[in-house]
Amino acid sequence: MFQFQHSNYLYAFAIIPVLVVLFVSIVYWRKRKMQKLGDETLLSTQVQGYIPGRSTFKFILVSIALSAIILGWANLRMGDKTEKAERKGVDVVIALDVSKSMLAKDIQPDRLTRAKQLIMRLTDKMKNDRVALIVFAGKAYMQVPLTIDYSSLKMILQNVSPDIVPSQGTVIADAIGMGMESFSRNERKYKSLIVISDGEDHDEQAVEAARQATEEGVIVHTVGIGSPQGSTLFDPDTRSVKLDANGEPVVSRLNEGALKSIAKAGRGSYSLLQNTDEVAEKLNGALEGMEKKNLGSLMFTDFTSYFQYFLLTGFVLLIIEWLLPGARWRKKRSVNESVA
After folding, report:
1. Are residues 321 and 269 in the same domain?
2. Which of 56, 91, 212, 252 has the fewest beta carbons under 10 Å from its own?
3. Is residue 25 part of a domain?
4. What gap in Å lies between CA 334 and CA 200, rounded to an integer?
5. Rounded CA gap, 107 and 111, in Å?
């Protein structure tokens, strides 16, 4: 069965009618100009290499060539054989801290941006795992339920910022609780929760929430973003360093102790984000080492592509159109040539 791999590219065919209208307009305009100059038949004899309909023929060649290139671009292909493959993986919920302290720049370009980069790298390494995204600050919010559509998750992740949550804080316990609701209660394994945060101003119930998660078969990993030395925060209202009630600069510091305690209670690992690839590899290794469940089967089809034939046809037609000589006005013979 034939199909186009990139069917959305076929919208480019909309340019063909536009070119037709433009060409017809030019032909009509040229015809009117010729009529103003004199008899059209007589004028045609003054055009060197004049062949009736040549411009129309050249336009048809260009149109066919463009159509062939668009078809090649969309890649017409035919399925040869179909295979069934079993899909196994685990369910992973990523809880991302989006409190304003995540805008600190003690890790460049800032904590939140680096956290997003980590999630991007991690999903790049995933194969069959289902993944969900939760954001939290003063409260947790589900952004993406468990899915294997990593592209959609990445698209939503790009728009994540502190502005999407109405209240500030770092309620890791609430994020863990929402993550628990995402998992199946009928399974006591195949589940992992990854908390990415600076751990600042965290709630005291987070360790207990992680401990309860392990009783449901969930492994809780934590990733620390920032530095123990900390960094001042930018206040968008004053466009300067944020100050506390005493007029002192507010310094946001990474709370590694809290995040390590949560990971220990959750029987998982703690990672300090310094090298994004290394942390992504470490987390992916932990997920790969887990026992996996059957997530159903996928049908894979091998295809034979025919794009090269369309592209070749298009380029050959363009070369032919380019090689066809154009018409031009005859040069007036000099007086000497007339006398001779």
Report:
1. no
2. 56
3. yes
4. 93
5. 6
36-69 in b/e form (b: 16+ CB < 10 A) is eeeeeeeeeeeeeeeeeeebeebbebbbbbbbbb
pLDDT score at 337: 44
**Domain annotation covers residue 238:** yes
Between the CA of residue 259 and those of 60, 196, 243, what are the distances in Å? 68, 9, 26
Q: How far apart are CA 339 and CA 334, in angstroms?
A: 9
Query: In which band, very low, low, confident or very high, does the pLDDT at 78 lie, cut at 50, 70 and 90?
Result: confident
Burial of 140 (0-12, 13-18, 19+ CB in 10 A): buried
In terms of pLDDT, which residue wins out, 175 or 298?
175
Quick one: tokens of 170? 């770092």
Distances (CA, A) of 297 to 63, 93, 245, 300: 44, 22, 59, 10
Tell which wins on pLDDT, 27 or 282.
282
Question: Do 289 and 322 lie in a common domain?
Answer: no
301 within domain boundaries: no
Asked if 127 and 146 sit in the same domain, the reply is yes
Q: What is the pLDDT of residue 45?
A: 54
Verdict on whether the full-model pTM lies above 0.90: no
Q: Give the pLDDT confidence score for residue 249 in this predicted structure.
A: 82
231 and 123 share one domain: yes
